[in-house]
Amino acid sequence: MSKAVVSKIPWAFFILFTAVVCFMIRPAGAEMRFFKGQTVYVPLYSHIYSGNREQPFYLAATLSIRNTDMQHAIRLTVVDYYDSEGNFLKHYLDKTLTINAMATKRYVVPESDKSGGSGAKFIVRWQADKPVVEPLIESVMISTKTQQGISFTSRGRVLDTISK
Known about the structure:
This protein is mainly beta. The protein has 1 helix and 12 strands, in the order αββββββββββββ. The chain is 13% helix and 51% strand. Strands 1, 5, 6, 7, 9 and 12 form a 6-stranded antiparallel beta sheet that branches. A 4-stranded antiparallel beta sheet has the order 8-4-10-11, with no helix packed on it. A two-stranded antiparallel ribbon has the order 2-3.
């Protein structure tokens, strides 16, 4: 093979490879999902267990609701707290609350509130006037005892959607 042909093969391969990769990659917005509302189940742990005797380790918990839409507000219609047995404990929302574009609302369950148990959860319902990027709804649990500390998060799970 001549030197000129050999030197062109890597460039031809590079151009072909780049073209194939460009067609295979989806735009960043392709994974976004748009809805007019959802009902979301959010696990929350008032405590977890440690040691052989299953000693409860009590936690402070924060429910975080982040409107990820860059242009439109969402409205919270329900933020309800339930215990491990599924019993209703508390309404955290007295009236509809608007969360502006890119804004966040938080609700805190203090470490001293042991009512939820290890299987506590929130039910969150939100709505929007037009389809928006779905919000990020998660819980963050944290506690420190002497020199031991623990923190972790749990994401919400969509139970129902309004897409039109």
